[in-house]
Write a structure and sequence with these properties.
Elements (H helix, E strand, L loop, with lengths): L1 H16 L12 E6 L4 H15 L1 H4 L4 E5 H7 L1 H6 L5 E3 L7 H11 L3 E3 L6 H4 L8 H8 L2 E5 L1 E2 L10 H4 L4 E2 L2 H13 L4 E5 L7 E3 L5 E3 H9 L6 E5 L8 H9 L6 E3 L7 H7 L5 H14 L4 E8 L6 H14 L3 E6 L17 H26 L3 E9 L7 E5 L4 E4 L9 E10 L2 E5 L1
Parallel strand pairs: 1-2, 2-3, 3-4, 5-8, 8-11, 12-13, 13-14, 17-19
Antiparallel strand pairs: 6-7, 9-10, 15-16, 15-18, 16-17, 18-19
Helix pairs in contact: 12-14, 15-16
This protein binds S-adenosylmethionine (SAM).
Length: 434
Protein backbone atom coordinates (compact mmCIF):
# COMPACT_ATOMS: atom_id res chain seq x y z
CA UNK A 1 0.00 0.00 0.00
CA UNK A 2 2.82 2.40 0.87
CA UNK A 3 4.65 1.55 -2.33
CA UNK A 4 1.48 2.36 -4.24
CA UNK A 5 0.99 5.63 -2.34
CA UNK A 6 4.63 6.62 -2.99
CA UNK A 7 4.19 6.10 -6.72
CA UNK A 8 1.07 8.32 -6.55
CA UNK A 9 3.09 11.08 -4.82
CA UNK A 10 5.55 10.90 -7.71
CA UNK A 11 2.59 11.01 -10.16
CA UNK A 12 1.11 14.23 -8.75
CA UNK A 13 4.44 16.03 -8.50
CA UNK A 14 5.33 15.06 -12.03
CA UNK A 15 1.95 16.15 -13.40
CA UNK A 16 1.63 19.44 -11.44
CA UNK A 17 5.20 20.58 -10.92
CA UNK A 18 7.07 18.78 -13.72
CA UNK A 19 9.31 17.10 -11.16
CA UNK A 20 11.42 14.05 -11.89
CA UNK A 21 12.73 11.53 -9.41
CA UNK A 22 16.39 11.83 -8.41
CA UNK A 23 18.69 8.98 -7.54
CA UNK A 24 20.53 10.90 -4.80
CA UNK A 25 18.94 12.96 -2.04
CA UNK A 26 21.68 15.61 -2.57
CA UNK A 27 20.11 16.40 -5.99
CA UNK A 28 16.54 16.75 -4.71
CA UNK A 29 14.48 19.93 -4.26
CA UNK A 30 11.77 17.98 -2.46
CA UNK A 31 12.34 15.01 -0.18
CA UNK A 32 9.29 13.10 1.01
CA UNK A 33 9.11 10.37 3.62
CA UNK A 34 6.17 8.03 3.28
CA UNK A 35 5.72 6.56 6.73
CA UNK A 36 4.10 3.58 8.39
CA UNK A 37 2.79 3.53 11.95
CA UNK A 38 1.64 -0.07 12.15
CA UNK A 39 4.42 -0.81 14.65
CA UNK A 40 6.53 1.49 16.80
CA UNK A 41 9.82 0.59 15.10
CA UNK A 42 8.56 1.75 11.71
CA UNK A 43 7.44 4.99 13.34
CA UNK A 44 10.76 5.78 15.03
CA UNK A 45 12.63 5.27 11.78
CA UNK A 46 11.23 8.43 10.20
CA UNK A 47 12.73 10.72 12.83
CA UNK A 48 16.20 9.28 12.40
CA UNK A 49 15.80 9.57 8.60
CA UNK A 50 14.66 13.19 8.95
CA UNK A 51 17.74 14.01 11.02
CA UNK A 52 19.88 12.59 8.23
CA UNK A 53 18.48 14.82 5.44
CA UNK A 54 18.11 17.95 7.57
CA UNK A 55 21.70 19.05 6.87
CA UNK A 56 21.01 19.06 3.11
CA UNK A 57 19.10 22.32 3.66
CA UNK A 58 22.44 24.01 4.38
CA UNK A 59 23.65 23.39 0.83
CA UNK A 60 20.25 23.71 -0.87
CA UNK A 61 18.17 26.47 0.77
CA UNK A 62 15.23 25.68 -1.57
CA UNK A 63 14.99 22.11 -0.34
CA UNK A 64 11.55 21.22 1.04
CA UNK A 65 11.09 18.20 3.31
CA UNK A 66 7.75 16.48 3.69
CA UNK A 67 6.34 13.70 5.86
CA UNK A 68 3.37 11.72 4.56
CA UNK A 69 1.64 8.47 5.43
CA UNK A 70 0.25 7.16 8.68
CA UNK A 71 2.83 8.58 11.11
CA UNK A 72 1.98 12.01 9.68
CA UNK A 73 -1.71 11.24 10.05
CA UNK A 74 -1.25 10.15 13.64
CA UNK A 75 1.21 12.82 14.82
CA UNK A 76 0.17 15.86 12.71
CA UNK A 77 1.51 19.11 14.20
CA UNK A 78 3.57 17.11 16.71
CA UNK A 79 5.99 16.26 13.89
CA UNK A 80 6.75 19.97 13.51
CA UNK A 81 7.38 20.25 17.26
CA UNK A 82 9.95 17.47 17.13
CA UNK A 83 11.37 18.39 13.68
CA UNK A 84 10.57 22.09 13.02
CA UNK A 85 12.54 22.03 9.74
CA UNK A 86 9.84 19.81 8.16
CA UNK A 87 7.92 21.84 5.55
CA UNK A 88 4.81 19.78 4.79
CA UNK A 89 2.90 17.11 6.71
CA UNK A 90 0.20 15.21 4.82
CA UNK A 91 -1.80 12.03 5.36
CA UNK A 92 -2.53 9.03 3.11
CA UNK A 93 -5.82 10.67 2.08
CA UNK A 94 -4.36 14.08 1.23
CA UNK A 95 -1.35 13.11 -0.86
CA UNK A 96 -3.10 14.47 -3.97
CA UNK A 97 -2.94 17.94 -2.37
CA UNK A 98 0.88 17.87 -2.26
CA UNK A 99 1.39 20.48 -5.04
CA UNK A 100 -0.89 22.97 -3.24
CA UNK A 101 0.81 22.27 0.09
CA UNK A 102 4.27 22.84 -1.39
CA UNK A 103 3.09 26.03 -3.10
CA UNK A 104 1.54 27.32 0.13
CA UNK A 105 4.79 26.58 1.97
CA UNK A 106 6.80 28.50 -0.62
CA UNK A 107 4.34 31.43 -0.67
CA UNK A 108 3.92 31.83 3.10
CA UNK A 109 7.21 30.53 4.43
CA UNK A 110 5.19 28.57 6.98
CA UNK A 111 5.07 24.78 7.35
CA UNK A 112 1.82 23.26 6.10
CA UNK A 113 -0.18 20.44 7.73
CA UNK A 114 -3.13 18.65 6.08
CA UNK A 115 -4.01 15.29 7.54
CA UNK A 116 -7.77 15.39 6.94
CA UNK A 117 -9.84 12.47 5.57
CA UNK A 118 -11.61 13.86 2.50
CA UNK A 119 -12.91 10.33 1.76
CA UNK A 120 -12.49 9.23 -1.82
CA UNK A 121 -11.62 12.71 -3.18
CA UNK A 122 -8.01 11.57 -3.57
CA UNK A 123 -8.73 9.21 -6.44
CA UNK A 124 -10.56 11.92 -8.41
CA UNK A 125 -7.47 14.10 -8.33
CA UNK A 126 -4.77 11.61 -9.20
CA UNK A 127 -3.25 11.62 -12.69
CA UNK A 128 -3.82 8.50 -14.82
CA UNK A 129 -1.83 5.52 -13.55
CA UNK A 130 1.51 4.80 -15.10
CA UNK A 131 2.91 8.30 -15.30
CA UNK A 132 5.18 7.73 -12.37
CA UNK A 133 8.53 6.06 -12.26
CA UNK A 134 7.20 3.41 -9.88
CA UNK A 135 4.21 2.39 -11.95
CA UNK A 136 6.08 2.76 -15.21
CA UNK A 137 8.53 0.18 -14.01
CA UNK A 138 5.72 -2.03 -12.83
CA UNK A 139 3.89 -1.79 -16.13
CA UNK A 140 7.06 -2.79 -17.99
CA UNK A 141 7.22 -5.87 -15.79
CA UNK A 142 3.66 -6.77 -16.76
CA UNK A 143 2.27 -6.28 -13.28
CA UNK A 144 0.74 -3.30 -11.45
CA UNK A 145 -1.06 -2.32 -8.26
CA UNK A 146 -4.57 -0.90 -8.32
CA UNK A 147 -6.04 0.52 -5.14
CA UNK A 148 -9.74 -0.37 -4.82
CA UNK A 149 -10.59 0.73 -1.29
CA UNK A 150 -9.06 2.62 1.59
CA UNK A 151 -9.19 2.40 5.34
CA UNK A 152 -10.65 -0.11 7.74
CA UNK A 153 -13.82 -0.25 9.84
CA UNK A 154 -12.98 -3.39 11.80
CA UNK A 155 -11.38 -1.63 14.79
CA UNK A 156 -9.26 -4.59 15.94
CA UNK A 157 -8.08 -3.58 19.39
CA UNK A 158 -4.37 -3.60 18.42
CA UNK A 159 -4.58 -1.64 15.19
CA UNK A 160 -4.14 2.06 14.30
CA UNK A 161 -5.39 1.81 10.71
CA UNK A 162 -8.98 3.07 11.30
CA UNK A 163 -7.52 6.13 13.04
CA UNK A 164 -4.76 6.89 10.52
CA UNK A 165 -6.40 5.92 7.21
CA UNK A 166 -10.04 6.33 8.21
CA UNK A 167 -12.96 3.92 7.78
CA UNK A 168 -13.50 1.64 4.78
CA UNK A 169 -14.32 3.61 1.62
CA UNK A 170 -14.57 1.81 -1.73
CA UNK A 171 -13.89 3.36 -5.13
CA UNK A 172 -16.77 3.17 -7.63
CA UNK A 173 -16.62 0.13 -9.93
CA UNK A 174 -16.34 2.28 -13.08
CA UNK A 175 -13.27 4.11 -11.70
CA UNK A 176 -11.43 0.90 -10.86
CA UNK A 177 -12.32 -0.57 -14.26
CA UNK A 178 -11.02 2.54 -16.03
CA UNK A 179 -7.65 2.21 -14.24
CA UNK A 180 -7.40 -1.49 -15.03
CA UNK A 181 -8.36 -0.99 -18.69
CA UNK A 182 -5.65 1.67 -19.06
CA UNK A 183 -3.09 -0.67 -17.55
CA UNK A 184 -4.14 -3.54 -19.85
CA UNK A 185 -3.82 -1.20 -22.83
CA UNK A 186 -0.22 -0.57 -21.74
CA UNK A 187 0.60 -4.27 -21.63
CA UNK A 188 -0.10 -5.06 -17.97
CA UNK A 189 -1.11 -8.73 -17.61
CA UNK A 190 -1.43 -9.04 -13.84
CA UNK A 191 -2.92 -6.68 -11.28
CA UNK A 192 -2.79 -6.77 -7.52
CA UNK A 193 -5.90 -5.17 -6.05
CA UNK A 194 -4.95 -3.21 -2.97
CA UNK A 195 -6.68 -2.15 0.21
CA UNK A 196 -6.59 -2.71 3.95
CA UNK A 197 -9.50 -5.15 3.59
CA UNK A 198 -10.11 -5.64 -0.13
CA UNK A 199 -12.77 -8.27 0.37
CA UNK A 200 -14.88 -5.70 2.26
CA UNK A 201 -15.14 -3.86 -1.09
CA UNK A 202 -18.61 -2.39 -1.67
CA UNK A 203 -18.34 -0.08 -4.66
CA UNK A 204 -21.01 1.92 -6.43
CA UNK A 205 -22.00 -0.01 -9.56
CA UNK A 206 -24.33 1.52 -12.13
CA UNK A 207 -27.91 2.72 -11.44
CA UNK A 208 -27.35 3.32 -7.74
CA UNK A 209 -26.59 -0.34 -6.91
CA UNK A 210 -23.58 -1.57 -4.95
CA UNK A 211 -21.29 -4.35 -6.09
CA UNK A 212 -19.14 -6.64 -3.94
CA UNK A 213 -15.56 -7.84 -4.27
CA UNK A 214 -16.51 -11.04 -6.12
CA UNK A 215 -18.36 -8.96 -8.73
CA UNK A 216 -15.33 -6.68 -9.13
CA UNK A 217 -13.02 -9.68 -9.65
CA UNK A 218 -15.40 -11.10 -12.26
CA UNK A 219 -15.54 -7.78 -14.10
CA UNK A 220 -11.74 -7.49 -14.22
CA UNK A 221 -11.23 -11.14 -15.18
CA UNK A 222 -13.58 -10.61 -18.13
CA UNK A 223 -11.14 -8.10 -19.69
CA UNK A 224 -9.18 -9.50 -22.61
CA UNK A 225 -5.45 -9.32 -21.91
CA UNK A 226 -5.84 -9.41 -18.14
CA UNK A 227 -4.40 -12.78 -17.27
CA UNK A 228 -3.84 -12.85 -13.54
CA UNK A 229 -5.51 -11.38 -10.47
CA UNK A 230 -4.02 -11.00 -7.02
CA UNK A 231 -5.34 -9.12 -4.01
CA UNK A 232 -4.08 -8.04 -0.65
CA UNK A 233 -5.00 -7.76 2.19
CA UNK A 234 -8.22 -9.46 3.14
CA UNK A 235 -10.07 -10.16 6.38
CA UNK A 236 -11.44 -13.60 7.36
CA UNK A 237 -14.84 -12.08 8.19
CA UNK A 238 -15.29 -10.86 4.63
CA UNK A 239 -14.48 -14.18 2.89
CA UNK A 240 -17.96 -14.59 1.39
CA UNK A 241 -18.99 -17.87 -0.22
CA UNK A 242 -19.35 -15.96 -3.50
CA UNK A 243 -15.67 -15.06 -3.28
CA UNK A 244 -14.62 -18.57 -2.23
CA UNK A 245 -16.55 -20.09 -5.15
CA UNK A 246 -14.44 -18.06 -7.60
CA UNK A 247 -11.45 -20.24 -6.71
CA UNK A 248 -13.28 -23.09 -8.45
CA UNK A 249 -14.42 -21.17 -11.50
CA UNK A 250 -11.86 -18.42 -12.16
CA UNK A 251 -8.41 -19.71 -13.18
CA UNK A 252 -7.17 -16.12 -13.51
CA UNK A 253 -7.44 -15.79 -9.73
CA UNK A 254 -4.04 -16.92 -8.42
CA UNK A 255 -3.45 -19.97 -6.23
CA UNK A 256 -2.32 -17.86 -3.33
CA UNK A 257 -4.43 -16.40 -0.56
CA UNK A 258 -3.05 -14.10 2.11
CA UNK A 259 -5.54 -14.27 4.95
CA UNK A 260 -4.43 -12.71 8.26
CA UNK A 261 -5.40 -14.71 11.35
CA UNK A 262 -3.15 -13.08 14.03
CA UNK A 263 -3.65 -15.86 16.63
CA UNK A 264 -4.85 -19.45 16.96
CA UNK A 265 -6.47 -18.86 20.34
CA UNK A 266 -10.17 -18.00 20.58
CA UNK A 267 -9.52 -16.10 23.81
CA UNK A 268 -6.93 -13.86 22.11
CA UNK A 269 -9.02 -13.48 18.93
CA UNK A 270 -11.88 -12.21 21.12
CA UNK A 271 -9.55 -9.82 22.98
CA UNK A 272 -8.33 -8.56 19.61
CA UNK A 273 -11.99 -8.13 18.52
CA UNK A 274 -11.36 -10.03 15.31
CA UNK A 275 -15.00 -11.10 15.01
CA UNK A 276 -14.33 -14.77 14.22
CA UNK A 277 -13.19 -17.94 15.96
CA UNK A 278 -10.39 -20.35 15.04
CA UNK A 279 -13.00 -22.85 13.82
CA UNK A 280 -14.55 -20.23 11.54
CA UNK A 281 -11.11 -19.38 10.12
CA UNK A 282 -10.42 -23.08 9.49
CA UNK A 283 -13.82 -23.42 7.84
CA UNK A 284 -12.89 -20.65 5.36
CA UNK A 285 -9.58 -22.39 4.58
CA UNK A 286 -11.33 -25.77 4.17
CA UNK A 287 -13.83 -24.31 1.69
CA UNK A 288 -11.12 -22.40 -0.23
CA UNK A 289 -9.07 -25.62 -0.48
CA UNK A 290 -12.12 -27.57 -1.63
CA UNK A 291 -12.43 -25.07 -4.47
CA UNK A 292 -8.68 -24.85 -5.20
CA UNK A 293 -6.79 -27.83 -3.71
CA UNK A 294 -3.24 -26.63 -4.47
CA UNK A 295 -3.66 -23.11 -3.09
CA UNK A 296 -0.87 -21.63 -0.92
CA UNK A 297 -2.10 -19.90 2.22
CA UNK A 298 -0.07 -17.16 3.91
CA UNK A 299 -1.00 -15.11 6.96
CA UNK A 300 -0.20 -12.39 9.49
CA UNK A 301 0.51 -13.24 13.14
CA UNK A 302 0.90 -11.08 16.20
CA UNK A 303 2.91 -12.75 18.95
CA UNK A 304 2.76 -11.54 22.55
CA UNK A 305 -0.60 -9.77 22.51
CA UNK A 306 -1.32 -8.62 26.12
CA UNK A 307 -2.35 -11.62 28.23
CA UNK A 308 -1.19 -14.26 25.71
CA UNK A 309 -0.39 -17.37 27.77
CA UNK A 310 1.76 -20.35 26.83
CA UNK A 311 -1.50 -22.21 26.18
CA UNK A 312 -2.72 -19.48 23.79
CA UNK A 313 0.59 -19.57 21.95
CA UNK A 314 0.48 -23.39 21.67
CA UNK A 315 -2.98 -22.99 20.09
CA UNK A 316 -1.42 -20.73 17.46
CA UNK A 317 1.30 -23.33 16.78
CA UNK A 318 -1.41 -25.98 16.43
CA UNK A 319 -3.28 -23.87 13.89
CA UNK A 320 -0.03 -23.35 11.94
CA UNK A 321 0.45 -27.13 11.76
CA UNK A 322 -3.15 -27.72 10.75
CA UNK A 323 -3.29 -25.11 8.01
CA UNK A 324 0.28 -25.56 6.76
CA UNK A 325 0.90 -21.86 6.10
CA UNK A 326 3.40 -21.21 3.36
CA UNK A 327 4.67 -17.87 4.61
CA UNK A 328 3.84 -15.16 7.11
CA UNK A 329 4.27 -11.60 8.22
CA UNK A 330 4.77 -12.25 11.91
CA UNK A 331 5.80 -9.69 14.48
CA UNK A 332 5.76 -9.02 18.19
CA UNK A 333 2.78 -7.06 19.40
CA UNK A 334 3.56 -3.34 19.45
CA UNK A 335 1.27 -1.10 21.57
CA UNK A 336 -0.13 1.69 19.40
CA UNK A 337 -1.20 4.97 20.99
CA UNK A 338 -4.97 5.46 21.07
CA UNK A 339 -5.84 1.80 20.47
CA UNK A 340 -7.82 -0.13 23.14
CA UNK A 341 -5.18 -2.88 23.53
CA UNK A 342 -2.56 -0.30 24.51
CA UNK A 343 -4.44 0.03 27.82
CA UNK A 344 -4.32 -3.71 28.60
CA UNK A 345 -2.04 -5.14 31.29
CA UNK A 346 0.83 -7.09 29.81
CA UNK A 347 2.97 -9.15 32.15
CA UNK A 348 4.74 -11.45 29.71
CA UNK A 349 8.47 -10.78 29.50
CA UNK A 350 9.89 -9.57 26.20
CA UNK A 351 12.37 -12.50 26.09
CA UNK A 352 9.50 -14.99 26.37
CA UNK A 353 7.68 -13.25 23.55
CA UNK A 354 10.83 -13.19 21.41
CA UNK A 355 11.31 -16.94 21.93
CA UNK A 356 7.70 -17.59 20.91
CA UNK A 357 8.11 -15.51 17.76
CA UNK A 358 11.28 -17.42 16.84
CA UNK A 359 9.52 -20.77 17.30
CA UNK A 360 6.59 -19.62 15.17
CA UNK A 361 8.80 -18.31 12.38
CA UNK A 362 10.97 -21.46 12.37
CA UNK A 363 7.86 -23.63 12.02
CA UNK A 364 6.49 -21.59 9.13
CA UNK A 365 9.90 -21.54 7.47
CA UNK A 366 9.97 -25.33 7.61
CA UNK A 367 6.54 -25.43 5.98
CA UNK A 368 7.74 -22.97 3.34
CA UNK A 369 10.61 -25.34 2.55
CA UNK A 370 8.17 -28.26 2.22
CA UNK A 371 6.08 -26.32 -0.31
CA UNK A 372 9.24 -25.40 -2.25
CA UNK A 373 10.42 -29.04 -2.30
CA UNK A 374 7.02 -30.12 -3.63
CA UNK A 375 7.47 -27.67 -6.51
CA UNK A 376 10.80 -29.26 -7.51
CA UNK A 377 10.53 -30.87 -10.94
CA UNK A 378 7.20 -29.19 -11.75
CA UNK A 379 6.72 -26.73 -14.59
CA UNK A 380 5.30 -23.40 -13.48
CA UNK A 381 3.73 -20.67 -15.54
CA UNK A 382 5.45 -17.54 -14.29
CA UNK A 383 5.32 -13.83 -15.10
CA UNK A 384 8.81 -12.41 -15.71
CA UNK A 385 9.04 -9.33 -13.50
CA UNK A 386 12.61 -8.24 -14.16
CA UNK A 387 16.26 -8.95 -13.53
CA UNK A 388 16.93 -11.08 -10.45
CA UNK A 389 17.88 -9.03 -7.41
CA UNK A 390 20.15 -11.86 -6.31
CA UNK A 391 22.82 -11.88 -8.98
CA UNK A 392 21.71 -9.09 -11.32
CA UNK A 393 22.05 -11.41 -14.33
CA UNK A 394 19.29 -13.99 -14.31
CA UNK A 395 15.61 -13.16 -14.76
CA UNK A 396 13.13 -13.31 -11.89
CA UNK A 397 9.60 -14.51 -12.49
CA UNK A 398 6.61 -14.91 -10.15
CA UNK A 399 4.72 -18.18 -10.08
CA UNK A 400 0.98 -18.40 -9.66
CA UNK A 401 1.42 -19.37 -5.99
CA UNK A 402 3.57 -16.27 -5.38
CA UNK A 403 7.07 -17.76 -5.43
CA UNK A 404 9.98 -16.08 -7.18
CA UNK A 405 11.92 -18.34 -9.54
CA UNK A 406 15.26 -17.26 -11.05
CA UNK A 407 16.33 -18.57 -14.44
CA UNK A 408 18.50 -17.70 -17.44
CA UNK A 409 16.67 -15.93 -20.22
CA UNK A 410 16.66 -12.92 -22.52
CA UNK A 411 15.74 -9.50 -21.12
CA UNK A 412 13.07 -9.27 -23.83
CA UNK A 413 11.02 -11.77 -21.83
CA UNK A 414 10.36 -9.23 -19.07
CA UNK A 415 6.63 -8.61 -18.87
CA UNK A 416 5.69 -11.98 -20.48
CA UNK A 417 4.54 -15.30 -19.12
CA UNK A 418 6.99 -18.19 -19.47
CA UNK A 419 6.96 -21.87 -18.50
CA UNK A 420 9.78 -22.59 -16.10
CA UNK A 421 10.78 -26.02 -14.82
CA UNK A 422 11.87 -25.85 -11.18
CA UNK A 423 15.30 -27.49 -10.96
CA UNK A 424 16.69 -26.36 -7.62
CA UNK A 425 15.55 -25.11 -4.25
CA UNK A 426 18.11 -23.02 -2.36
CA UNK A 427 16.59 -22.07 0.98
CA UNK A 428 13.63 -19.91 -0.12
CA UNK A 429 14.72 -19.25 -3.66
CA UNK A 430 13.68 -21.40 -6.56
CA UNK A 431 15.90 -21.83 -9.58
CA UNK A 432 14.65 -23.11 -12.87
CA UNK A 433 15.06 -23.57 -16.60
CA UNK A 434 12.90 -22.34 -19.43
N1 LIG B 1 -6.81 -7.21 6.62
C1 LIG B 1 -5.82 -7.29 7.62
C2 LIG B 1 -6.38 -8.00 8.84
O1 LIG B 1 -7.18 -8.89 8.67
O2 LIG B 1 -5.99 -7.68 9.92
C3 LIG B 1 -5.29 -5.95 7.93
C4 LIG B 1 -3.87 -5.76 7.61
S1 LIG B 1 -3.07 -4.85 8.87
C5 LIG B 1 -3.15 -3.25 8.33
C6 LIG B 1 -1.45 -5.42 8.65
C7 LIG B 1 -0.93 -6.30 9.73
O3 LIG B 1 -0.15 -5.54 10.65
C8 LIG B 1 -1.94 -7.00 10.61
O4 LIG B 1 -2.46 -8.13 10.00
C9 LIG B 1 -1.17 -7.30 11.87
O5 LIG B 1 -0.60 -8.59 11.86
C10 LIG B 1 -0.06 -6.24 11.87
N2 LIG B 1 -0.29 -5.30 12.98
C11 LIG B 1 -1.26 -4.36 13.05
N3 LIG B 1 -1.18 -3.73 14.25
C12 LIG B 1 -0.15 -4.28 14.92
C13 LIG B 1 0.41 -4.07 16.21
N4 LIG B 1 -0.10 -3.16 17.04
N5 LIG B 1 1.48 -4.82 16.58
C14 LIG B 1 1.99 -5.75 15.75
N6 LIG B 1 1.50 -6.01 14.53
C15 LIG B 1 0.43 -5.28 14.11
Amino acid sequence: MNEYDSSKMADVLRACEGMVQTERSEDADVILFNTCSIREKAEEKVFSDLGRVRTLKLTNPNLLIGVGGCVASQEGEAILKRAPYVDVVFGPQTLHRLPQLLQARRATGRSQVDISFPEIEKFDHLPAPGLSHGEGTQAASGTAYVSIMEGCSKYCTFCVVPYTRGEEVSRPLADVMRDVEELVARGVKEVTLLGQNVNAYRGAGGDGDTVDFAYLLQSIAALDGMERLRYTTSHPRDMSQRLIDLYATMPKLVSHLHLPVQSGSDRILAAMKRGHTVLEYKSVIRRVRAARPDICITSDFIVGFPGETEQDFEATMKLIDEVGFDNSFSYLYSPRPGTPAAELRDETQQEVKAMRLKRLQDRIEAQEATVAQAMLGTTQRALVEGISKKDGKELAARTDNNRIVNFSGAAGMIGSFVDVKITQVVRHTLRGEL
